[in-house]
Amino acid sequence: MARDIAIDVHKRTLFVVAADAAGVELWQRRFPTTAEGEAQLLRELTPEDRVVLEATCGAHRLANRLESTGAKVIVADAQHCRLLGMRGKKTDYRDCRALLSHLRAGEIVAVWRADPTTRWIRQLTRERAAYNQGIVRLKNRIQALLWEEGLVAPGRLFGAEGAAWLAAQALPETTRRIVAREWQALASLLPLKARQEQELAELALTLPLAQQLMQVEGFGAPTAVMWLGEVGDVTRFGSARQLVSYAGLNPLVDQSGERVRTGSITKAGRRSLRWIMIEVAWRHVGSGGSLAEYFQRLTRRGKKPQVAIVAVARKLLVLAYVLLTRSETYRHLNARRYERKLTDLAACRPVDLEPEQSHVDWAAARLKQTTGLDSPYREAHPVACPGRSRCRRRRPGRSSTAGSGCAEFPALEGSDPSANPLPAGLVGEPEAVTAPVG
Questions:
Q1: Does one domain contain both 359 and 249?
Q2: Could you tell me if 90 and 68 are in contact, meaning their C-beta atoms sit under 8 angstroms apart?
Q3: Which DSSP letter does residue 279 get?
Q4: Alpha carbon of 69 to those of 34, 45, 49, 74, 219: distances in Å?
Q5: Which helix (H) or strand (E) holds 181?
Q6: H-run or E-run covering 13
Q7: Is residue 436 part of a domain?
Q8: Residue 408 in this model has a pLDDT that exceeds 80
Q9: In the chain, how long is the greatest CA-to-CA distance?
Q10: How many CA atoms lie within 13 Å of 197's alpha carbon, on the beta-carbon side?
Q11: How far apart are CA 15 and CA 402, in angstroms?
């Protein structure tokens, strides 16, 4: 007999309500959120059942396991479920009954379930956001401590010159100890972030879509990979407008009769994708991309920079959708700059897996394959490099200034990403990439 089963997922328990096709309740039970509890729930399911649960932490993993029984599993959109709940008391039982009621009515909005590789990239995106927030906070605290002492670095504080300047300052002993600890914490985060960027770049080597996104100013290898992880399969969006809505970059609309008002963006989509697009937009404008003049035009009209950059991010999101769905070449492509990106990406190939082809030759081949254009570098330097070592670029993050400064305040910018600030055994090696996205 086919049944409808609703599951309310919690941290420690799973509350389950089963009903027949007519909506008559058959049983209700609470299972522990453990391997044994999930095994008990699996034994209760049959291939004819329909299971619905709300999208929350751990819901996708549980849905994949429930599908092993042959049952049809639906992960419902959490924002839509809040509008469907029963009024008055809110209990686990009422939530399950509401899910069952709307499942029979066909009003459940199911979310897209990402594949394992896409979920892994999303975890890397959240890791990167956490690193960025931690690094910015530490730098701000260090600068605030110096500002309280009336000190302002003459140049870049976190480079070699800034570290040497800081070591020569006569700070109070208590302030110096605090600054030294903050500096040490910052020095431990930067190599970890560099290693994570290296992992994202190595993943970009296996993703042609990421290399295609890198045609647009503002998209680097790590950013393109994170964008693909947040969006997933681009073809599942019927139009660019749907993708903009998915990112929460569409404006609010208040309509009543003939009155129509628009407001700020909805922020109703994926926050991580919205954050990525804002970062890409700032980098695009800073590098003089094709939409930089559009940003300047909005600011001249009185728009705040934060509002104008959102408009640029929305246009860039539409542009990325068009490039990937139509497999077109970017109209305003800067071939020289794009080739430099590909050359830097080639430098991220693992040393033990690098072929005999030089980084410049690999970038020229990828440029020809992606856009059909010849290499600007080869046109300017028609003579082939006599040796592979002369064509290799320095790996990202390595610099001749690494290790300069002083013992107490070493230079932070340009540090070696392979350096591990944590004790041996606490950080494992990243798993090998085996499956592409999209």
A1: yes
A2: no
A3: H
A4: 18, 7, 9, 14, 42
A5: helix 173-204
A6: strand 13-19
A7: no
A8: no
A9: 81
A10: 22
A11: 55
Classify residue 74: in a domain, yes or no: yes
Look at residue 402 in the predicted model and tell me its pLDDT.
41
**Which residues are CB-contacts of 312 (< 8 A; sequence separation ≥ 6)?**
281, 284, 285, 291, 294, 295
Question: Any idea what DSSP says for residue 67?
Answer: G
- Residues forming beta bridges with residue 265, ordered by sequence position: 251
Task: Provide the token pair at 419.
Answer: 């350096």
Per-residue pLDDT band for 137 (boundaries 50, 70, 90) equals very high
How many CB atoms are located within 10 Å of the residue 36 CB? Answer: 8
The 10s digit of each residue's pLDDT in 97-114 is: 999 998 999 989 899 998
Supply the pTM of this predicted model. 0.82
In terms of C-beta density within 10 A (0-12 exposed, 13-18 middle, 19 or more buried), how is residue 352 classed?
exposed
| Sign of the alpha-carbon torsion through 121, 126, 129, 134 | negative
For the chain, how many structural domains are there in total? 3
Sign of CA dihedral 226, 230, 235, 240: negative
d(CA 438, CA 229): 9
Q: Over 70: is that where the pLDDT of 394 sits? A: no
Q: What is the bridge-based pairing of β-strands 50-54 and 25-32?
A: unpaired
Instruction: Please indicate, yes or no, whether residues 12 and 25 belong to a single structural domain of this protein.
Output: yes
Range(s) of the domain holding residue 128:
117-205+395-429
Mean pLDDT lowest for which of 14-18, 330-334, 415-419?
415-419
CB < 8 Å & 24+ apart, contacts of 311-315: 312/281, 312/284, 312/285, 313/249, 313/274, 313/277, 313/278, 313/280, 313/281, 314/244, 314/249, 314/250, 314/277, 315/291
- CA nearest to 369, candidates 208, 170, 210, 236: 208
From the list 51, 84, 86, the residue with the least C-alpha distance to 68 is: 51
- Backbone phi, then psi, for 17, in 5-degree steps? -130, 130
